[in-house]
Design a protein that fits this description.
The complex is a heterodimer of chains A (479) and B (67).
Chain A (H helix, E strand, L loop, with lengths): L1 E6 L20 H10 L6 E8 L2 H9 L12 E7 L9 H4 L3 E7 L7 E6 L9 E3 L2 E7 L2 E7 L12 H16 L8 H6 L15 E2 H11 L2 E6 L10 H11 L4 E5 L4 E8 L5 H8 L5 E3 L6 E5 L7 E4 L15 E6 L7 H13 L11 E9 H10 L5 H9 L5 E8 L1 H5 L2 E2 L1 E6 L10 E5 L3 E6 L5 E6 L7 E2 L6 E3 L1
Parallel strand pairs in A: 13-17
Antiparallel strand pairs in A: 1-2, 2-3, 3-4, 4-5, 6-12, 6-25, 7-8, 10-16, 11-12, 11-16, 12-14, 14-15, 17-18, 18-20, 19-24, 20-21, 21-22, 22-23
Chain B lengths: L15 E3 L4 H32 L3 E2 L8
The chains are: A alpha+beta (479), B mainly alpha (67).
């Protein structure tokens, strides 16, 4: 039920929550976090109690009820609004200003449960994130919210890596019917390798065990370890990571030395490519778009959602990108070709004379995966692409997922335009000579109908190709 | 039932079919063997050992905000 409506004029007014919520649920440190991080634009917090939280209940029945000490079965849930809510009758009017909810568990330690907060509820957040639609219900009223889910480890059943797996699992189960919903206790029980000792109470898990958890949910996780890429170009490991993040795939990043794991679910504001080329004095033919991305958005279970991890000192206050020793990417079954393969293959199509790029000092290369459905949908509204190139891609049979390589002159990249866009079959074998579906230059396109005719075609454009708009459907931008 | 379903892509009228033994594709195939394949083999070797490394990357839980 609706316990109290708290008017908020400044973050300090969050202290009024203690008038109804005991400190077992809302500690001093969590209160400090709320005051520091919540947006100044929040005008009302609605307190709901008793709230049955399915995730807390899963750990309650699996663990807390077995303790000698008595734990409350119920939780508090806070709902945040950007406009003032006078009474429960005014909820329907305030619905448009709803920016999400957080559950407070009675666990005394790490009490922040399932948190569905919009980035608009976070002070000064700017960036690009994976998000999906959730629907809360308060007092019989549906309250929709678009976000990426967050939860804090409870330190008994779940640790940071479990919390991150939960965030990813809940994001996918809410977004795609093919993925089952997994509650926090299910996540903790999904580990099959017990060679490190008992799993509950948890003393931490390995990245390998994270992979087991993701596998139990229906993913085919791909693992990337920094140590194995040390003989490559220094930033190749980060280029691979960026490709998956730009694909809208949230990943589990493991920081061995920091003994921590976080979810990387987006990236921060991008730098100008023109400035980046100048600053790095870049002379190579391709500048990976990652170099224009100095920060990634993370959900760190020790904090509220939507923090940053950076290259250097900056927005992120605790971790550097160099702290990430490995990461697990939860891939759909039919995503076979991995990012490191495609990052190595695409430059050779130009150097191998399949296509001839206009001579420019450098092209910014943006490499990411998307579903062919989402891609073809974007083509239907793309006005500035050559009609033949557009129709060819719409007609060409494509697998469920495709890799896309976008090449832009730096100035065009800053204007969100591309010179060339190549489409690659994500189900291809990495040893195939021709894994692409369509590559092109300004004069011609090479089309490989891999499934119906099994033929490679060359088609000349009637007029020289002009730049067209970048593909931006994978991540949602908050400015 | 034996019938042919005629399918024609919008680009086919203007298209030239590149045979696998055409000079253009043969040139790229050679380039692939020399320049691409060794890199791909190296990458696939890395991925096959990633699992062993992953079981050494321990990530424990700890609470910063209470410190």
């Amino acid at each position: 039920m609706l316990l109290k409506i708290i008017d908020v004029d400044s973050p300090a007014d969050c202290m009024k929550l203690w008038e109804v919520i005991p400190k077992d649920y809302l500690s001093d440190s969590l209160m400090a976090l709320l005051r520091k991080v919540l947006s100044d634009a929040i005008r009302s917090i609605v307190v709901e109690y008793p709230y049955v939280d399915k995730d807390y209940r899963s750990t309650y029945y699996g663990f807390y009820s077995k303790r000698h000490r008595t734990y409350d079965k119920f939780c508090f849930r806070l709902h945040f609004f950007l406009r003032q809510i006078e009474s429960d009758a005014a909820l329907i009017v305030g619905r448009e200003s709803y920016v999400g909810s957080m559950v407070l568990r009675p666990t005394e330690v790490a009490t922040l449960g399932r948190t569905l907060l919009s980035p608009r509820a976070i002070k000064g957040f700017k960036g690009y994130i994976c998000e999906t639609a959730f629907k809360n219900n308060l007092h019989g009223l549906d309250l929709p919210i678009n976000t990426f889910p967050h939860i804090m480890q409870d330190t008994d059943v779940t640790v940071c890596a479990h919390a991150v797996c939960w965030m990813i699992a809940r994001y996918y189960s809410e977004r795609y019917a093919v993925y089952p919903e997994r509650l926090t206790y299910d996540i903790a029980c999904a580990i099959k390798d017990v060679s490190f000792g008992r799993t509950i109470p948890s003393r931490g898990i390995t990245l390998g065990q994270v992979s087991e958890v993701l596998n139990s949910i229906g993913f085919q996780p791909e693992l990337f370890i920094r140590e194995l890429y040390k003989d490559d170009e220094p930033d190749f490991f980060h280029d691979v990571l960026y490709s998956y993040v730009e694909s809208g795939i949230p990943i589990v990043a493991a920081m061995h030395k920091k003994e921590h794991a976080v979810a990387i679910l987006g990236h921060g504001v991008l730098l100008s490519a023109v400035e980046t080329v100048k600053a790095l004095d870049w002379k190579k033919p391709f500048l990976p778009a990652r170099r224009c991305c100095p920060s990634f958005v993370i959900n760190d279970d020790n904090r509220l959602p939507f923090n940053f991890i950076c290259d250097a000192e900056g927005l992120g206050d605790s971790y550097r990108l160099s702290d990430v020793d490995g990461f697990a990417v939860p891939l759909y079954e039919k995503m076979y070709l991995s990012a490191d393969n495609i990052l190595k293959i695409y430059p050779k199509w130009a150097s191998g004379n399949l296509v001839t790029l206009e001579k420019k000092p450098t092209y910014v290369s943006r490499v990411f995966m998307t579903s062919s459905r989402s891609y073809k949908r974007s083509l239907t509204v793309l006005q500035d692409m050559d009609p033949l190139l557009r129709k060819t891609q719409i007609e060409l049979p494509m697998p469920k997922f495709i890799w896309i390589v976008e090449l832009s002159e730096p100035l065009l990249y800053d204007q969100k335009k591309v010179n060339y866009r190549w489409i690659v079959d994500a189900t291809a074998n990495p040893y195939e000579k021709f894994p692409f579906l369509l590559i092109h230059d300004s004069e011609k396109m090479i089309i490989y109908d891999r499934t119906y005719r099994d033929k490679i075609y060359e088609v000349k454009f009637t007029k020289r190709l002009s730049p067209f708009a970048i593909f931006e459907n994978n991540l949602r931008r908050y400015t | 039932m034996n019938r042919e379903i005629k399918v024609e892509y919008c680009f086919e009228e203007k298209a030239k079919i590149l045979e696998r033994d055409s000079d253009k594709l043969k040139e790229y195939a050679k380039h692939f063997e020399n320049d691409v394949l060794p890199e791909i083999k190296k990458i696939e070797r890395k991925k096959s050992s990633a699992k062993e490394f992953a079981y050494q990357l321990r990530v424990s839980g700890f609470i910063i905000y209470n410190e």
